[in-house]
Design goal:
single chain, about 150 residues, 7-stranded mixed β-sheet, elongated
């Protein structure tokens, strides 16, 4: 199974090196001294591709746009609406996704995923990032379950 992953988009407020923390429903703050290792627009597609590759037992998960060595069977498009931590130790990932035909023109499936995790110590950024990573893994499992259901 060969999969093209992309485009993967994020809200503008996440396009920064600092970790974004939700203070309240109407207020976001950046953790000035706690930063991502690289931009999320680069990290998240790569991690999702690795997760999908592992879960689907396929070495053919490609980030689009990019070099795709052969035709793909499916294209997955993702729009992240939220990917953030809260100072109380919770995290949330909200994304809309579509699985498209190989040309990326016809929608085969799609949905909205909401993944939340809790358990980090308040204001412990390392634990919050670990929970966000776990949420991303849960989201990958959602995508894999849908792909497997489609393929019968």
């Amino acid at each position: 199974l060969a999969i093209g992953l992309g485009p993967v988009t994020f809200p503008g407020y996440l396009d920064r090196p600092q970790i974004v923390v939700r203070q309240s429903i109407y207020r976001l703050e950046t953790a000035e001294f706690d930063r991502w290792a690289e931009p999320l627009k680069d990290t998240i597609p790569r991690i999702l591709a690795e997760n999908l590759s592992f879960l689907l037992e396929s070495d053919e998960v490609y980030i689009v746009p990019g070099r795709i060595p052969r035709d793909v069977d499916l294209v997955i498009s993702i729009e992240f609406l939220r990917f953030e931590a809260m100072l109380d130790g919770d995290v949330v990932l909200v994304a809309r996704w579509e699985i498209l035909d190989p040309q990326g023109e016809r929608r085969l499936s799609g949905g909205r995923a909401v993944v939340s995790r809790s358990g980090a110590a308040p204001e412990d950024y390392e634990s919050l990032v670990a929970l966000l990573s776990d949420a991303l893994g849960d989201f990958a499992q959602t995508l894999v379950a849908e792909i497997q259901a489609m393929r019968g």
